[in-house]
Sequence to fold (290 residues):
Amino acid sequence: MRRAFYALLKFYGIFALCVLQLAISSASLQAAESAGGLPLLFDARERIAKPDMSALPRLRFLTTVDFPPFNFIDQSGRLAGFHVDLVREICQVLKIEPRCQIQALPFAELQPALEEGQGEAVVAGIGISPELRQRFAFSRAFMKMPARFAASRQAMGPTLSVAALAGKPVGVVSATTHEAMLKAFFPKLDARTFPSRQAMLDALGKGSIAAAFSDAMQLSFWVAGRPAAGCCVLLDGAYFSQRFLGEGLAIMTRKSEPSLNQAIDHALLELSRNGRLNEIYLRYFPAGIY
Fold:
């Protein structure tokens, strides 16, 4: 998941950074206030005890610098992003800020570094798989990445809804999880496959197709960006599927440290309950992806 997700993000990396800069403006703050928040992933009645962290000498989080808006180098040359802010909040909840560190490595080095004890946790958008679960432990998911429809105003006319897609061509990239998901979730739609994401977006921009079905985050950046030129809009509805899209974003730790994983889950629960997790989300996704 992480490699495929990064391949999609790389094309829009520059635009994503621009969006992050705009997020500090009053206009973007107003957009954030009107955007939908994170779906609730924790039961408000749930309790996860915080383990004793006094014996932990330090907590080193490993990440990357090439995964905007989750991890990137900002204009001042510092590591920034959703994951970086999340780590700071986790350490604050656990009251171990002086012992918390975050270090960036190439993506290919993250798993070996964790196994070799160069860090205690990895927060870098690694997709959870059965193979990885045999080697590592994972926190509870703190964010899920849905699929959505982006629709052409020209092709759709005044009725901009998923129901109005009936009988209209809907684009999707061939041989992808989104193609399989579209056919499973919406078997009656007229699916038109494209060899690449760019080819699909070009057709959507021209109104050759009524809508496109793809990763919600990528579509949200594209719809709001200059390449789309206001042609299109995200339709209501975010579609989730563990089968097709995975379990979501989580923090990876060593299996030999279950108390650390419990501590991270405790912090994530508290951040979800007090609204700080949602605040971080809106900071980096001011228009919302859900």
Observations:
- Residues 79 and 233 are 32 Å apart (CA to CA).
- The radius of gyration is 20 Å.
- The chain has two domains: 2-144+247-284, 147-244.
- Confidence is low (pLDDT under 50) at residues 1-34.
